[in-house]
Amino acid sequence: MVDMLRDGQTTGAATAMSPSAVEPAVGVADETSGRTVLRLDQVDKRYPGVHAIKSVSLSVREGQIHALVGQNGAGKSTLVGIAAGSVHADSGTVEIDGESTQSPTPTWCRERGLAIVYQEPALLPDLTVAENMRLGMPVHARPAIGDQIAWAEEILARWSSVASIDARTPVRELRPDARFVVEIARALAERPKVIVLDEPTEHLLPPAVAELFTLIAEHTAAGGAVVYISHRLNEVKQIADTVSVLRDGALVGSFDAEDVTEQDVVNLVVGRELDRTFTRVTGADRIMGEELFAVTDLSGKRFDGIDLTVRAGEIVGFAGVEGQGQRDVLRALGGLGGHSGTVRVGDRTIDPSSPAAALHGGVAYLTHDRHVEGVLSGLSLRENASLSALGRISTAGVVSRMRERKLTGETFRSMRVKAPNDEVDIATLSGGNQQKVVLSRVLLSDSDVILADEPTQGVDIGAREEIYSILRKAAAAGKAIVVLSSSAAELEQLCDRVLVFSRGQIARELVGDDVNEHAIAQAALSATHSREKAGTGTGRVNFWHRMSRSDLTPGAILLIATIILGIIAATQSDTYLTGRNFSLVLPLLATLAFFAIAQQVVMMIGGIDLSVGPLAGLLVVVASFILSAYRTPVGMILGVIVLVVVAAVVGAVNWSLITVVRINPLIATLVTFTALQGLALLMRPLPAGQIDPFFLSYVSGVWGFVPVMAVVAIVVAVVLEYCLFRTTFGIKLRATGSAGPTAERNGVRTRWVTLGAYVGCSVLIVPAAILLMVQSGTGNASIGDSYTLASIGAAVLGGASIFGGRGSFIGAFLGAVLVTQINTVVQFLGLPLYWQQWLLGGLTIVAAAFYSKSRTLTERS
Ligand SMILES: Nc1ncnc2c1ncn2[C@@H]1O[C@H](COP(=O)(O)OP(=O)(O)OP(=O)(O)O)[C@@H](O)[C@H]1O
Question: Per the database record, which ranges form the ABC transporter domain (predicted)?
Answer without folding.
Answer: 38-273, 287-528
